């Protein structure tokens, strides 16, 4: 077995940290309590462990290939995706009306983590399809929904997001693809889109492209961008497939990682125009795309957690098997498995603490999204929405940045073997590097955090969260254990560092933008660090209570130690990062551009 | 031009930070002053920029290949190595008696950085040859020296280090290769060696393997290991080549990076025994090997600096060319080159600050080695030797660990393009990952730092260094600039953090080894951070003085800003790391091994 889904930790977080029972009181989620979650996770684990995970290394060895406009995916991917769809996994959280299971985002989050741990390249196909479904649900006409959603939810058709063009990467105002209105109400699309994940492949009957383009005569900039559905094959009124549309894959990229996932260059309209259907209203495309981008950003954050978990499991296995050198404490007189060595333990604990901290943060955010959607009280919905929106750039930015360190440590634990491709640790390191780039680089996430999530409300959201953190500090202070005391001390220092940084950000964003944005990514990393550390502190409280009740003592002790490790080795960085943000602008702004 | 040697920065460090003029007062180095250094560096830059750097990406695309025992290197490598040898670059710091140029280590350090920036895979061949030369100079008989050294120094023959075996990686006590004494005074070698860099290739007429093995009947453990010379082709008395020796390459590895550098599995003695010659005395092999390992560790640290410099240059180039988004300060009303964006500047400054800090640290250590070897006063030699030995694990461990972050940022600056292999940024990221592993992992460097370099003298060396740092703090305090004040504040806090950590390490190494070694790598990172920050603080002082004198104001201002950036963004982490070391043991030691 190359991957064992961490079902126990997932259920612990859902039940004791993210509040699954509360989610299950929301209208529509009445059947989605702990028993349902456990059953769903067990089933999900089986498919991912037995079918999808074994294909991961195969995909790296024999990536998707391109010939004459056709993309052939790694052997086994097509069949695995059929099983994924047939099992209902594409539809876990989508509406029952369109064939989905209608489960909470919180349960979906666990399922998404699993498929990404099993095989990140494979998982990108359902991930992008989820985003396309979200966009259609948000803004599509009833006719578009009726024609496209069910086959996508069933996993028979897949979806893509077509944003990037050669001159328009992080800056979507530069999109040049154009849409010419036709007398029948459709549009003809023309242009080149790059970096289109699963833009062409052989795993589904049809591909539903969601495309940003400018309608003839639309305003410049982001306010002139519209969103279109453009299917690979035209769809007849009865749902059967018709003629091939004028969108063609002209090449796929040769990438450092996620090699099995085809990254396509798509050419629209080279043979008369690709037929597209407007989603929602003209010129509001970016707004709709943001809906799917927020979902996709959250999911990419989960990819960071997922690849970290996989790398961790692999490193633990190697550390148990590899025998080298005697323990430094003289406890054995022969060479021991390297897991005995303190620095190997420290590396494994670092990997574990980041992974568990980010998982807890993501699950808590997912539960907030459930409440933001389904809670009967508008004020509670609003509060949860604000919390979720604050968390999205952190889940995306922090979880992926730390996955670089975690997968690097995964190689490091393997020593020389880690650098040999056949070992497999290197694949995770190579795969992870895309995560801090796509769906908005870490800097783009940080801009969002600084601008929309901190400066716009003058820091009110972050201050409100810090008050909740203080409640946790008070609970920790009321406990007698060394671990609770140690974690409480670091949490208080981390929370204060976050408040200081947020005050600097909120007050300077208008007057000193260069100074503030020189600290934007450090601010994101600080906020992510404190949020993950906070959730592990809450985990410690829950674990101590469970331990006192005699429940799963080994698991609970490990949970407590992991929280303490996080606090002393990771959260302890927070005050230093605050200093970089508050005092560090001159080191950036005073550098003349010519001096680089 | 894909690489421009940073000659100006190198000469600044040599002249104003590492004390080249003082080195040039040492016996034997009288001609090695600033003018010589400038001339040597200029010549060295030409070869590396024009000939060796362009082969770097070629080597990644078309790595060394293996067929029927023969390794064929990337097209162009053989010719480039001929030029390298003919230019005298293999012999820069080796004795004139054997055909070398006899220049100081300080000048050699600059040359080694350049060839590694140009092409890390290529540079490994001379790097290992240097190590073999060192070992023969240290312990070889006059006959061995006479027969082997000159062709190696000339670059006609190359050298290898054969330590690792499948069961003996970090733990050399497990070496099993055996050596049977022969009546003629030679030995027959039998065994398998793995991970042998340039263990087989087509770039030289002969390969001189230095091999660790046990003489029949030798004691168990590290005290029964001897060192042998084992040439690929036997060498006749007149220096001509004779029969093929019984050492054969049976495969090369499929690696994540440094793909052009062949990593061989070597089989000794499958056809009757490989003829070997004892180096020095029996059972003292590990001691001799440490001589070449220290040189190699220092050089691997320089590889970290070198790949960081190359990644930095590439990122700066891209950031100047790529146009995307308007500046946040509204200074331009159109999209700007991304180097205008504060976070891109922050990333570039991070890359630059790490690179310049580690370069200054390495050059200062190299100058200390020159004094340790050549100073007429024994007390000065001893003091410099202690300083150098303290620095070796830092140059190796810190410079390579930070190169992972620097090369990762190099990819990040390129955005999506960075993940596409043809861009070239990804190669540096993949190449760098071996640096924290080979020639002793970071944990092995940290063990050395904790055990031999800190605990053994009760922290005396580190305290003596910290007194020197206090002198620098006093000089900074006497200055009026904001930059000097900012750097002085961080340096003082960093120095205190290092003292606290060293006291914890020195006092606990015997009684609480698990707690101390749980903090060993953080201690290494803390010490490296403070040492590099200190040298940049000294650079700032020198640059302010030069600026006051009107010398190269743009360069000097950039130097000052880089030092300030390092202090506020990197050195500012020091107190947090101290906390991890001093308070963080429980998070490691309390974790049950079964709980992972």
TrEMBL record, chains A, B:
GO terms for molecular function: flavin adenine dinucleotide binding; oxidoreductase activity, acting on the CH-CH group of donors. It holds the Pfam family Acyl-CoA_dh_C. It catalyses: 3-(methylsulfanyl)propanoyl-CoA + oxidized [electron-transfer flavoprotein] + H(+) = 3-(methylsulfanyl)acryloyl-CoA + reduced [electron-transfer flavoprotein]. Residues 78-155 form the Acyl-CoA dehydrogenase/oxidase N-terminal domain. Residues 161-267 form the Acyl-CoA oxidase/dehydrogenase middle domain. The keyword Oxidoreductase applies. Its EC number is 1.3.99.41. Its cofactor is FAD. It comes from the Bacteria. Keywords: FAD, Flavoprotein, Oxidoreductase. It is an enzyme of class 1 (oxidoreductase). Residues 283-449 form the Acyl-CoA dehydrogenase/oxidase C-terminal domain. Residues 466-591 form the Acetyl-CoA dehydrogenase-like C-terminal domain. InterPro entries: Acyl-CoA_dh-like_C_dom, Acyl-CoA_Oxase/DH_mid-dom, Acyl-CoA_Oxase/DH_mid-dom_sf, AcylCo_DH-like_C, AcylCo_DH/oxidase_C, AcylCoA_DH/ox_N, AcylCoA_DH/ox_N_sf, AcylCoA_DH/oxidase_NM_dom_sf. Belongs to the acyl-CoA dehydrogenase family. Involved in the assimilation of dimethylsulphoniopropionate (DMSP), an important compound in the fixation of carbon in marine phytoplankton, by mediating the conversion of 3-(methylthio)propanoyl-CoA (MMPA-CoA) to 3-(methylthio)acryloyl-CoA (MTA-CoA). This is 3-methylmercaptopropionyl-CoA dehydrogenase.
